[in-house]
Amino acid sequence: MATTGIENEDAIHPGKPVVVDRYNLAARINHWITAISLILLAASGLAFFHPSLFFLTGLFGGGQSARALHPWIGVVLFFSFAGLFIRFWRANLPEKSDREWLAHANDVIAGNEEKLPEAGRYNPIQKVNFWAMSLLIIALILTGLAIWDQYFYDWTTIPQKRAAVLVHSLAAVALICVWIVHVYAVIWARGTLRAMTRGSVTGGWAWRHHRRWLKELAERHRFKKPAAPAE
Amino acid sequence: MEPSPHTAQSNPPVAVTPANLTERDLVRRSASSVPAPVRQLEPVAKLIDVSKCIGCKACQSACIEWNDTHPAVETNVGIYENPHDLTPDMFTLMRFSEWENPQTGNLEWLIRKDGCMHCEDPGCLKACPAPGAIVQYSNGIVDFVHENCIGCGYCIKGCPFNIPRISKVDHTAYKCTLCSDRVAVGQGPACAKACPTHAITFGTKEDMKKLAASRIEDLKSRGYEKAGLYDPPGVGGTHVMYVLHHNDQPEIYSGLPKDPKISPVVNAWKGMAKYLGFAAMGLAAAAGVVHAALAGPNRVTREDEEKAEDLVKEKA
């Protein structure tokens, strides 16, 4: 069994129900800084993308400040996401069983998880999401620097800036699509959001969606004292 | 339609004249639409006869004076251009090139007054994301409206001539206005007024084309067989035109593009990318809604919890 899919913070609290730690506080703060930056970037970026959405610059105090802030928020996102990348890239490496899991795409969509191979800490769709985000953010920061005229105007030629702005807009659209899938998946698979708020999930959630991860944790005796009973 | 007021008189009126370039004369407004104009102004044009230019830079001085800009004093680096390039404070620039004519062996000093060409199909306006930051009047003038400009530099990417410059002071884009404020009250541009050799003239586009034709005929009779008018069709024609002695090779005039047009990359960005983008984002969101409706939520069951509890009991 592969052993890539366990993070140091992961641990089982025996009890009724079983609770499994999934994201520690630092990971959660890191995630939410990234999420907030991404939403602000999407709002300001879409305002420049199409005139019908220009009103969104109002959220930033007008067109001038939206234009000035957008690239700085991008820098925040880049470094914040880099933090997530360092945390989670190992657990997102592809494995042999991923192919078989993806071959059951119909069962994934229908929610027949019992027909799928047991998933580790991340299932293949989450992995694709992770790597797509990573690559798109690299594309966005590079093309973003090329069109950050205030500081980097002289770094590129005008034809390069044209290509950069086109790639930047397409990559942003792709990233928003990936983000929609990410958010939808969290809403669809009930009980997921608490992993990023409280930092833990129930044992049943882990059993249902990431059984191999749960089994590995149990196998390695990653237990903590029972969770405090509900008040 | 109302008659067009005269915008191109050689002897402008001295009486107080109401401005005739108003909101209702707009034919295009960036990132927004305008109602159909109630009248069509006579298309105007500035004609720059390169063969008559002596490189005195009176046009630059007049431009600085009229627009009240303050270009920085720079260091002489051994070339004639001063300042070194168009800047947010220098809307027009004499560009000098020394060209050896391979046919005659003569050294020709080609001096071109660079600046906004006032394209009929303006790439800057097409690229601009800020409503009303770039406008085009029915007489052909393309103007930047600074209070609407957000300083993003998209106009720089849209322009086929590399003209707009972003100010580091107020973060808005600047370029030649064709002296829209003077034209609005029946005067010609400051540069045309200052030119001592009449290399720069201003009038209706039709008149300027006639004048150019007579100049080209004269140049041809003097051995410049390829003399011609630079009014590039790729951008729908321009409202600043050049008479060139070598119209077959405009690039020798400090890189004047031979067939300027809005870059296909810019067209893709402003056209296909938008439809594709909204379609993709819309589909992703719609897929979520449809899936939620058909599949319903994926809930953890009591059985799942029990299985987990059993596993933990067994291993703990």
UniProtKB/TrEMBL annotation, chain A:
Membrane-spanning intervals of the chain: 32-49, 69-89, 130-153, 165-189
Chain ranges of the Cytochrome b561 bacterial/Ni-hydrogenase domain: 22-199
Pfam families assigned to the protein according to its UniProt record, in alphabetical order: Ni_hydr_CYTB (PF01292)
An individual GO BP term: formate oxidation
UniProt-listed InterPro entries: Cyt_b561_bac/Ni-Hgenase, Di-haem_cyt_TM, FDH_cytochrome_b556_subunit, Formate_DH_gsu
Membrane topology reported for the UniProt record: Multi-pass membrane protein
Location of this chain's protein in the cell: Cell membrane
Cofactors named for this entry: heme
Cellular component annotations (GO), alphabetically ordered: formate dehydrogenase complex; plasma membrane
GO molecular function terms attached to this record: electron transfer activity; formate dehydrogenase (NAD+) activity; formate dehydrogenase (quinone) activity; metal ion binding
Keywords: Cell membrane, Electron transport, Heme, Iron, Membrane, Metal-binding, Transmembrane, Transmembrane helix, Transport
Domain of life assignment: Bacteria
PANTHER family registered for this protein in UniProt: FORMATE DEHYDROGENASE, NITRATE-INDUCIBLE, CYTOCHROME B556 FDN SUBUNIT (PTHR30074), FORMATE DEHYDROGENASE, NITRATE-INDUCIBLE, CYTOCHROME B556(FDN) SUBUNIT (PTHR30074:SF5)
Family from the record: Belongs to the formate dehydrogenase gamma subunit family.
Record's protein name: Formate dehydrogenase subunit gamma
Species the sequence originates in: Microvirga flocculans
UniProtKB/TrEMBL annotation, chain B:
Binding site for [4Fe-4S] cluster 4: 128, 149, 152, 155
Cofactor annotation: [4Fe-4S] cluster
Translocase recorded as keyword: no
InterPro entries referenced in this protein's UniProt entry, alphabetically: 4Fe4S_Fe-S-bd (IPR017896), 4Fe4S_Fe_S_CS (IPR017900), FDH_Electron_Transfer_Unit (IPR051555), Formate_DH_bsu_Proteobacteria (IPR006470), Formate_DH_C_sf (IPR038384), Formate_DH_Fe-S_su (IPR014603), Formate_DH_TM (IPR015246)
Assigned GO CC terms: plasma membrane
Classification via PANTHER family: FORMATE DEHYDROGENASE, NITRATE-INDUCIBLE, IRON-SULFUR SUBUNIT (PTHR43545:SF6)
Name of the featured protein: Formate dehydrogenase iron-sulfur subunit
Organism: Microvirga flocculans
